[in-house]
Design brief:
Blueprint lengths: L15 H20 L5 H15 L3 E6 L3 E6 L8 H11 L3 E3 L18 E9 L2 E10 L4 H57 L4 H18 L6 E3 H19 L3 E7 L7 E3 L4 H12 L6 E10 L2 E8 L6 H8 L10 H12 L6 E4 L5 E8 L8
Parallel strand pairs: 7-9
Antiparallel strand pairs: 1-2, 1-5, 3-4, 4-5, 6-8, 9-10, 10-12, 11-12
Helix pairs in contact: 1-2, 4-5, 4-6, 5-6, 6-7
Length: about 375
């Protein structure tokens, strides 16, 4: 009887070195999310066990420049010595080795305590020491010193990424505040003027417009979250256009076409409405017969493509180039601001694309990934 071939089975999972490398990378990946929140007591307590596993020493501690943040391992009666060790080590700069005589056991456990020496490595962010990694053991071997130093460098790198994330968030918040300051006076005065014109002639419409105005400003001036959904952003755009149509009447015509699949896509807060306002102000406001604004959102596989187009006066392409380059002296509501925020979040490949010429109208194209790291409404 013929024997069927035995199914192939994978029995070798790599060398010992391969498996050790995998374990190290996996352990580091467990510590990274907490450290990306910055050096705080909470992040230290959540990451210290994983760092301890990386080093394999009897105990480790994390501190800021003055206080113990977290301890893990044996010999916790030495935890009170951490602030003093940090202060002394930071005064000397660089990784420091602490000998047995500088680590007296407060509870008289010299014979059984595994903490007899320490390696203190600084945690550095942008050339600024913000804390220490302290590794404790029976003696400070050359290998332990090198391991502590390398892990401290890695921790410093994660903390530096946290600083960059915080800086980016602060910058984006500042840019949104600047955008609000730039947009709001012009829009508020015109909207209130349009609403006032209906108070006597059509009180019901005046009331409806006032409610739309309240909802629009509530959304525009909200204080939470740097991202929202495309659906929320477009809802705000609709409110804006209702208020502008009250002012322009039949001179302002709008077409809105949105694929349902992209409504839930997360987008930077106030990234579409400024483009629409720019179309109204610079495209149609000065046009004698008014004009047409077309807003389209398309599902293109991994991307969402949004187009805001007007058939108004158009712009000099050099003017737009200067706006996108950050020239603050030019008056194009929000274009440069939105372009800068999109590039900061998604990279330079996702900045605004503007097609325009004098007398030919303007089309602004936004291409956004449907899913991007750190982007969620």
């Amino acid at each position: 009887m013929a024997r069927l071939p035995r199914p192939w089975r994978r029995t070798h999972l790599g060398s010992d070195a391969d498996r050790a490398t995998f374990r190290t990378l996996h352990t580091a990946s467990l510590a990274a999310p907490a450290l990306r929140a910055g050096l705080t007591r909470d992040s230290a307590e959540r990451s210290v066990k994983h760092l301890h596993a990386l080093l394999g020493s009897p105990a480790i501690a994390l501190s800021d420049t003055a206080d113990l943040l977290a301890w893990d391992g044996a010999g916790q009666h030495h935890a009170g010595q951490v602030p003093g060790l940090a202060t002394e080590a930071l005064a000397r700069s660089g990784t420091q080795v602490v000998a047995r005589r500088e680590l007296p056991c407060a509870e008289g456990q010299q014979g059984s305590c595994p903490v007899r020496a320490a390696v203190i490595s600084p945690l550095v962010v942008e050339d600024r020491v913000i804390g220490t990694l302290q590794v404790f053991g029976p003696f400070a071997s050359a290998g332990l010193v090198r391991a502590a130093d390398e892990v401290a460098r890695w921790v410093s790198g994660q903390l530096e990424l946290a600083e960059l994330d915080t800086s980016r968030t602060r910058l984006m918040e500042a840019e949104v505040r600047a955008l609000r300051a730039q947009i709001s006076p012009h829009f508020v005065y015109n909207s209130l003027g349009a609403i006032a014109s209906f108070v006597r002639t059509d009180p019901d419409r005046a009331r409806e417009l006032l409610l739309e105005f309240a909802d629009f400003t509530r959304y525009s001036f909200r204080r939470h979250g740097e991202f929202t959904t495309l659906a929320e952003e477009l809802r705000s755009v609709e409110r804006y256009l209702l208020l502008e149509q009250a002012r322009f009447g039949d001179r302002l015509r709008v077409t809105l076409s949105v694929a349902p699949e992209v409504l839930s896509v997360a987008v930077p807060f106030l990234c579409i409405q400024p483009l629409v306002e720019n179309a109204v102000r610079h495209g149609l406001e000065s046009a004698e017969g008014g004009g047409h604004i077309r807003i389209v959102a398309i599902d293109q596989g991994q991307e969402c493509v949004i187009e805001v187009e007007d058939d108004g006066a158009g712009e000099d392409p050099e003017h737009i180039r200067r706006v996108l380059a950050g020239d603050q002296s030019l008056d194009s509501v929000g274009l440069g601001n939105v372009d800068g925020r999109l590039r900061a979040v998604y990279g330079d490949d996702h900045g605004l694309v503007v097609e325009t010429a004098p007398g030919a109208g303007t089309k602004v194209v936004v291409r956004l990934p449907k899913f991007a790291p750190g982007v969620h409404a």
